[in-house]
């Protein structure tokens, strides 16, 4: 569940950044909207989350996202 909390924090930060710098965000983090939408699924539809899919995302997509965020 700690991973889910981290996604909530990341997506909330992206949501706030979208309001301030939408064009810059879209240029640097291509799928930011999907991340924000994923937070909504985690928050409101946790019973439909496939833990294997979540873990795959953590292992294979988070490193790329982290690099983009650090270079932001």
Q: How would you concisely characterize the structure shown here?
A:
The protein has helices spanning 2-20, 22-28, 32-44, 51-60, 62-70. It has 72 residues and is an all-alpha fold.
Number of helices: 5
- Note the gap between the termini: 27 Å
Number of strands: 0
Q: Determine the mean pLDDT.
A: 82
Biggest β-sheet description: none
Order of helices and strands: HHHHH
- What is the gyration radius calculated from CA atoms? 12 Å
Percentage of helical residues? Answer: over 70%
Describe this entry's structure for a reader:
This protein has 72 residues and is mainly α. The protein has one domain (2-70). It is built from five helices and no strands. It has helices at residues 2-20, 22-28, 32-44, 51-60, 62-70. It is globular. The N and C termini lie far apart (27 Å). The model has no long low-confidence stretch (mean pLDDT 82).
Write the topology of this structure.
Elements: H1 2-20, H2 22-28, H3 32-44, H4 51-60, H5 62-70
Helix pairs in contact: 1-2, 1-3
